[in-house]
Amino acid sequence: MPSENNVAAFAEGCCGPDGDAVREALRLWRLARVEQRGILPGLRAPAPEYVRDARELLAALAAEYEKAGAPPLRVLQRRGGYTGPAGREVYALPLATAWRIVNRKRLPADVHQLDAFLTGCGVTGKTMTTWHHAWQHARAEPAAPRRGQTEDPAPPTIRPRIDKLLEALTPKDAEAGLLAALHTMVSGEAKRNGVAVPTGYELVYDPTYRAHIHLRRKPPPRRLRVIQRRPKPSPNLSTAPEEAVIVECKRA
User: Fold this and answer.
1) Distance of CA 121 to CAs 68, 79, 219, Å?
2) Which terminal Cβ of the chain has fewer Cβ within 10 Å, N or C?
3) How far apart are CA 62 and CA 101, in angstroms?
4) What residues have CB less than 8 Å from 38, skipping those under 6 apart?
5) Of residues 144, 124, 118, 131, the one with CA closest to residue 55
6) ∠ CA(118), CA(122), CA(126), 5° rounding?
7) Predicted TM-score (pTM) of this structure
């Protein structure tokens, strides 16, 4: 998928400085981007005039971002314009705020950030007033419970078996068990991240087992049975050296 700037330059190069041709090419590009990303249908965003709470407003703002072709956040920030006194202008929409809005984490902090976000998405004109009303309504109304969720969810509780186990333990034993569980959890995370210090067993056995997996051979035995026997006398020697010992390793 070419970038938005490349599409505009290609349309201008083919059709000349015709604004209608460039706008049509960009409109088709945005539709293709929506189809490519596939996020817009899953948002189920209402129109701004039907927004009831903050969650629906965040979905509606994310939908506008997707309809605009999901431009890079820096492009969105630049299109949103500047704010502040002359000579000390800053972007009206911080990058962190833009990321939170796009990912439906947090509403714009004020109307200026809302306007900057919508301007970056190509929303202009009288529609802005509708968005202002939706933003004010969403800030005043608490979020409605999701489907299947009660308005006052019960606080999480400990499982009955764990609760009984904790009651049976003394404070000292409970503390020791907690420390052991934390040690196991931290060491497991360290092993997964490759920063754990290997133990003796891992130094000896694990490398050989990994080599076996790589070579598709039978795993090496964990226990070896050692058989010692003296060699038979050589025809050229009358007797075998007493110190000569052959060590033969077999599977246990």
Assistant:
1) 5, 8, 60
2) C
3) 7
4) none
5) 144
6) 70
7) 0.56
| Three-state secondary structure call for residue 184 | helix
- Residue 43, class by beta-carbon neighbours within 10 Å (0-12 exposed, 13-18 middle, 19+ buried)? middle
Give me the residue label for tokens 């090496």.
Answer: 220
Domain boundaries, the chain: 1-37, 40-140
CB 240 within 8 A of CB 234: yes
- Cα-Cα-Cα-Cα torsion 40, 44, 45, 51, nearest 10 degrees, comes to -170
- Residue 15 host element (H or E): helix 4-15
Q: What does the longest C-alpha to C-alpha distance in the chain come to?
A: 114
Instruction: Judge contact between 104 and 117, C-beta under 8 A.
Output: no
pLDDT in tens, 136-167: 999 886 655 555 555 555 455 555 666 666 67
Kindly report, residue by residue over 72-115, the tens digit of the pLDDT. 999 999 999 998 888 888 899 999 999 999 999 999 999 999 99
Tell me the Cα Rg of the chain: 35
For residues 107 and 101, is the Cβ–Cβ distance under 8 A? Answer: yes
Q: How far is CA 32 from CA 23, 43, 80, in A?
A: 14, 17, 23
Token code pair at residue 218? 């039978």
- Tell me the C-alpha distance between 49 and 131, whole Å: 7
- The amino acid that residue 239 corresponds to is T
